[in-house]
């Protein structure tokens, strides 16, 4: 019990620090610079790494983890689908919430392509008033294996792990399967999963249409 209480205190204290650092009044005219977003990304990444180690296993911290798999078949060669699908900038405009993607670092190490970025979303809440949400993420693209992974963190301490796998079909098409893992408070997990899966499905359909039509 003492260990559980200690972990809960760590979680609440650290979350409070991060919330204090990231919380800003919602004003349409406030636009953070890329440097400010990069600093937030770094703080979020450090918090994420600390949190994942300090609070496992999830049930003891009042959090839950849910896994979902979604697939879609695209009538195009695997090389083309992989290049277009794995470019997060191609996701802009395919989901009504996603407004901007800011890349902080783009590098290749030992054949793996790393991209650190922040996705900016405007999410309508009460009376349709938009609230700006920032998702800080790292994408790891493995071109030799035709798959990529993304870890992301956003307030209020919502973590998403993704592994997107591309499979060549016999008819010249490509099957894309997204393995999604959502981690959030037990109070938020249902909302997180429902909205997360819906967003990914909408993006999948948009990418399929864009690739097959030749727009991408």
From TrEMBL:
Top-rank taxon: Bacteria
Entries under CDD domains matching the protein: SRPBCC (cd07812)
Alphabetized InterPro entries for the sequence: START-like_dom_sf
Signal sequence interval, chain numbering: 1-28
Keywords on record: Signal
UniProt name for this protein: SRPBCC family protein
Species of the source: Planotetraspora silvatica
